[in-house]
Structure formats: C-alpha cells, structure tokens
Design a protein that fits this description.
homotrimer; Jelly Rolls; 5-stranded antiparallel β-sheet; 3-stranded antiparallel β-sheet; 4 helices
C-alpha cells in the first residue's frame, strides 16, 4: 500500500474544501485499485459532492440545521462555541471514504468532487491521509 | 481489481432501489476480498438497510425531514424543485460503501440489503460502479 | 484477506460502544493495508469519533433529534418503540467504515475512536466483522 498524509489549509471559518486535485494527483501513476481518503481528526469529515454551484454552502447550512452549533446543547464543552457540535459531525459525515481508481484516475462522476468538511474554527490546517491498494 | 458499471432504473420519483442481487451476482465467482459500491453521481447515495418492512419509505420520509426539498432553502437552484437538496444528500448518505466478501458472498447480515438512494427525479437511470479487490 | 467476526456486548439501552482496542488488536501483527469494519446488522452503524469528553452522549442526543424514536412516525412497526427509527439509522451512520493501517497500527488521529452505534434496545450483543487487506 502506498500511503501519505497531505496538509490542507482550512482557515479559521467552517468550510468545505475541495481536495479533488490532491486525490487525482495521488492516483495518477497508479494502476487500478481502491483509494482511501481518511481524515485523522475528530471534528472533520470527507464527502463527495458537487462544488461551485452553491452546494458547498448549502451543505454548511444543512449541517447548522441538522446539528446546531449552540453551545448549551452539547455536553462536550471544550474549545470555541460550536466545538461540541463539531465532535458529533464525523458520525454523520464520516472521516473515511473509499474511491475506485481506474488506470490512474479516480472513477468520479462528472459533477463529483472530493471535499474536506471542517466546521472546526480552531484549527487552520488539517491532515488528510491518502492510501492506495492496487488490485 | 475487477470493476464494472451497472445501470439501475430508478424512474421519475424519489426512490430506494434494492441492488443487493446485482452486488451478489458481481461477488459470486470471486474469492475473499473487499467489494466497493460507488455511485458516480452527485445526487445519490448508497446505503445498507432492511427493505420490505417499511424502512425504505421511512428513509425517504426521514430524508425529507432532515433535508427538506423546498426550493427556497438551497442556493443550488438548477433542475426540478428539490434538486438543491438532492445535492446535499450525498454528504449524509455517501455514494461509497465497502462490503467484505467471503468465499464469493457479500458478508451482509440477514436483514441487510444494499440500496441506491436517489431523490433526484430528473434522471430515470443511474450508474453504479462495482469493484472487487481480492485479498 | 484476513477476516473475523467479534461479538460486542451492547446491553439493553442505546449506546455508543468503543471498539478501538478490538480494532487495534486485529490490526497488530499485520503490515500496511486497509481494514474494513462492517456491522452485519440492520439497526446499527459504526463511526469514528472522540469518546470520553461527552461526545458519545452528544451523539445519542443528536440521533434522537435527527431521527426521533416516536413510534407513530415510522412505517416499520416491529419490535420495541424506537425500532422503526433504528432501521433508518444505518443510512445516516453507515455500518461500514474503512481505516488505513500502517505497520500494524490503525492510522487514527489522537482523538479518534472507533465506535459501534447501536440504538436498538432489543439485542444485548452485536457482531462486528473486521477484515484486512494487505497492500
């Protein structure tokens, strides 16, 4: 297995960060196989959605409705307001996704991008582990 | 890796489509390994649930509550009403799932079925990529 | 592929059960590869979250809000109150997650634990299948 950690700048606000080009670069020069995207953080997830037509912001709004950030709701009380919520997020938006690679290209659909979903405002950078198993 | 795309008829209404038999057929004649089910579309997901006792319709109702289809809520405004919501769905119901295969059989529990979850009413058919890595 | 089923005691109440040590034990003595955690039950999921600082209880509260247990809401009516809801849970908290293993250690972040999420009160024990593919 080939595996490496990349560092993604997420900044100080909640964000949906497109990492498709990182994933594609990692897959290039490989053959067929399965590519694992894994975020080794307890307050972030990874998703495959369309970006650039509003859905990335729609996702952040949906997260705020489904899992409201208000401090009083959550037992976990460390960190900035919303951090309790951030810790529940990965149960719904998993930190792990597996993508098939065909001839060195992630087999994504036309409108699919791989995104890091990070509502945590306390960290400016996040690590993402990319791993590839040839089949 | 063995990989192929199958085409699933989803029709013109939101649906939970059982693809277990397609997955089982693909796994048959293989040995032990991991089977990836990946939907290359930005408005559909894949899940493992029980079907046939109401839970497939329960899932569609839950999606409508968790992610309401009303047009005004979503920035993404292309397509039929609800299409903005459809684009957020895959962040919560991922387009990728990995299933262990033992001696050519998906290691599903008695009540588990693999389903395509597709709330998009604008497409009558969907592709699903099945990939298998022997271990 | 090496694959085995372990049995986890979940008791008679909804719970988030830490299975990190089981996963770590299974990964030890392996080399690099992908580890699949798969729950062969239709009313449970697996997640990677922080435990021990309130987030496990926060997750159970969030599930109760996102997918309320009230019996009247759900078409699936077998089992104890809430069982209809339990059957929708795995679409949102998947029964499958894939974790990279590096030199016999799951590549989890410092605050990440692998947990079985089981809101089903009718079963005292649950099986979890652990599988490993070397890369």
């Amino acid at each position: 297995m080939i595996s490496e950690e990349i560092v993604i700048h997420t900044g100080g606000s909640a964000g949906v960060v497109d990492i498709t080009s990182n994933v594609a670069r990692f897959a290039a020069a490989r053959d067929d196989g399965l590519l694992s995207v894994f975020v080794p953080h307890a307050t972030a997830g990874v998703a495959v959605i369309e970006v650039g037509a509003g859905s990335d912001d729609d996702l952040l709004s949906a997260i705020d409705e489904v899992l409201p950030a208000e401090r009083g709701r959550w037992r976990h009380q460390h960190g900035s307001p919303g951090h309790g919520r951030d810790h529940v997020l990965p149960a719904f938006i998993s930190p792990s996704i597996t993508i098939p690679v065909i001839a060195g290209r992630p087999a994504l659909g036309t409108w699919q991008s791989v995104v890091l979903v990070d509502t945590n405002v306390d960290n400016q950078t996040r690590k993402v582990r990319l791993s590839f198993i040839e089949g």
